[in-house]
Amino acid sequence: MSREIGTITALITGAVLCTGTCVQASISLVSQSRSVATSAALPPITDSHSDSAPDFSPWTRTVSSTAGTGNPGATASASQNSSISTSTISAVMQMSAQRLGTNSTGSASSMLNVVFDVLDTPAPYSIIFSSAIAGDNSGAAASADLTGPSGSVFSWSRHIFNNSWPTSPRSGTLPVGRYTLGLSVGSSTGFGDQIGPSGSINWNMSIPAPGAAVAFTCAGLFAARRRRGS
Q1: Which of 52, 95, 165, 180 is buried most deeply by CB count within 10 Å?
Q2: Strand order in the sheet with 123-134
Q3: What is the pLDDT of residues 58-114, one digit of tens each?
Q4: Which DSSP helix (H) or strand (E) runs through 222?
Q5: Dihedrals φ, ψ of 10, to 5°?
Q6: Which secondary structure element, helix H or strand E, spans residue 66, and what is its range?
Q7: Pairing mode, if any, of strands 123-134 and 105-119?
Q8: pTM score
Q9: Which helix (H) or strand (E) holds 63?
């Protein structure tokens, strides 16, 4: 009969640490702020609308504004379909704004902000995402920012003439601490816009739920320990 020497320690994708017992990364949601807003103006007419999520529940909203009909005139639209949990933050965010004529203006925005804590042990994350900007001015922008206890984890922005968003997907590990995720897409119309600016963000950030992984990982370790026995 052989005897196992030492303690088996395994770290599976940064999420599960087993040393006889299993310790999992815990995520605690702290606060959220999600909103959509639009405005269209053709003096003396101004049409503005906005809405915001009351809590962490899944949230779907679309708002729109119109001022005038045809030329001159302005329209704007913003939408968001988002869901927040301790294992996933997902969002589909869109906006568009258009004006015809020099006296009208339009603006639209969709924003998400989530504060969460990583407790106990570092947590892995993976993100599948896309962003798009279109239109004939430089007013449209899409951004994604994540800050943590050591500062910026990433900061991406996309404009008509500049794009720092990387290639999807992305992954990494979040050390223990407090984090703030911010997503936004928005625009205001500029002089002479005939094709109004528009933009979108599609986002799915996953922090693997530990239940199945914990059971699987610990079972694998215990099986390994048995194999090392006599």
Answers
A1: 95
A2: 59-67, 73-84, 88-100, 198-206, 123-134, 170-174
A3: 999 999 999 987 778 889 999 999 999 999 999 999 999 888 777 888 899 999 999
A4: helix 210-227
A5: -135, 140
A6: strand 59-67
A7: unpaired
A8: 0.79
A9: strand 59-67
